[in-house]
Amino acid sequence: xxITVRAATEADLGALLGLYGELNPDDAPLSPASAKAVxxxxxxxxxxxxxxxxxxGVVAGTADCMVMPNLTRGGRAILFVENVVVAGCxxxxxxxxxxxxxxxxxxxxxxxxxxxxxxxxxxxxxHFYTAxxxxxxxxGFRRYVE
Length: 146
Hints:
By secondary structure, the protein is α+β, with helices and mostly antiparallel strands. It is built from four helices and five strands. A five-stranded mixed sheet has the order 1-2-3-4-5.
């Protein structure tokens, strides 16, 4: 299978919503108007790149990347990665690894000193990120807001 990774475009919105449905199946789907409005905000945000991986021409996975400017580490930015998902039928075929390689290259090209992400409390997911060269170095905290 040929895997290519590129920046998502509005034409990928339907595929992205399908992938996010796999990631968070309990979420209510966005209306088409809401999805387009959110996409407009995302695509207009400086430093934000939603990557998509195509397997044989089909969107098979995605990773949302955000470069955050930073006043520490000599002013070098941080790349945050969120909403990483590979369609179930494409898992185990190298799609996720290619997405993470592309995210790291994106961070390197933006002069970032690190690429950071939070991972679900799942041994398979932790093994995947470790195999991609990431190390579990900190404990994450979050607080959901309503």
